[in-house]
Specification:
The structure holds two protein chains of two kinds. By secondary structure, chain A is mainly beta. Chain A is built from no helices and eleven strands. The relative contact order of chain A is 0.34. Helix content of chain B is 0%, strand content 58%.
């Protein structure tokens, strides 16, 4: 059974801080790892990673995957109050009809 | 934004009554999913569909059934609702089952 563990479960920082969110996983047939941001409603897509060592970037957010050690990190630099959200990590297994298995998420609170 | 509509958005019902949640998409995507989200559990897959009349179980399928008679509609039915099924239900779609899922706005179900 695929498994995703995120840490920390919650984090409180001040505006301008840099944060690193962690995601470790166990999967039998890895296809991709995805990050989502969830504010009050539906999760919205951030990144999809399939190859080890290649950083994906979007503005102040970046993510990298280590397929050997089975983890990914999501970095947010110069945090803003608008970054406050739950960040979800998910694994897609190629052997399970393309289902996504989600972690429990990290609740990030950015205080002014 | 992906064209996904969930209905109803909010519902309060009593234990033992049947409930049907509807997910409607205008994207003609092949893959559709039903997730539930609960505090401390993250997003958990209930059922998914990989085509008309093609469905499969997720990790928390007990007490739920689904149907997909048209590409655009995916119905989730609780035959006899229980209080443990109080949750927020998200529908999601995927173009080819690979990578990014697009989520609906969610349906909040309360079973008294």
């Amino acid at each position: 059974e695929d498994k995703v563990v995120q840490s920390p479960l919650s984090l409180v920082v001040h505006e301008g801080d840099t944060v690193t969110l962690n995601c470790s996983y166990e999967v039998t047939n890895f296809r991709s790892l995805l990050w989502y941001k969830q504010e009050k409603k539906a999760p919205t897509f951030l990144f999809m990673l399939t190859s080890s060592g290649i950083e994906k970037k979007s503005g102040r957010l970046s993510s990298i995957l280590d397929k050997k050690e089975l983890f990914s990190i999501l970095n947010i630099t110069a945090t803003q109050t608008g970054d406050s959200a739950v960040y979800l990590c998910a694994i897609q297994s190629g052997g399970s009809n393309y289902k996504l298995t989600f972690g429990k998420g990290t609740l990030l609170t950015v205080n002014p | 934004d992906a064209g996904i509509t969930q209905s109803p958005r909010h519902k309060v019902t009593e234990t033992g009554t049947p409930v049907t949640l509807r997910c409607h998409q205008t994207e003609n995507h092949r893959y559709m999913y039903w997730y539930r989200q609960d505090p401390g559990h993250g997003l958990r897959l209930i059922h998914y569909s990989y085509g008309v009349k093609d469905t499969d179980k997720g990790e928390v399928s007990d007490g739920y059934s689904v149907s997909r008679s048209k590409t655009e509609d995916f119905l989730l039915t609780l035959e006899s609702a229980t209080s443990s099924q109080t949750s927020v239900y998200f529908c999601a779609i995927s173009r080819e089952g690979l990578g990014e899922l697009f989520f609906g706005e969610g349906s909040r179900l309360t079973v008294l």
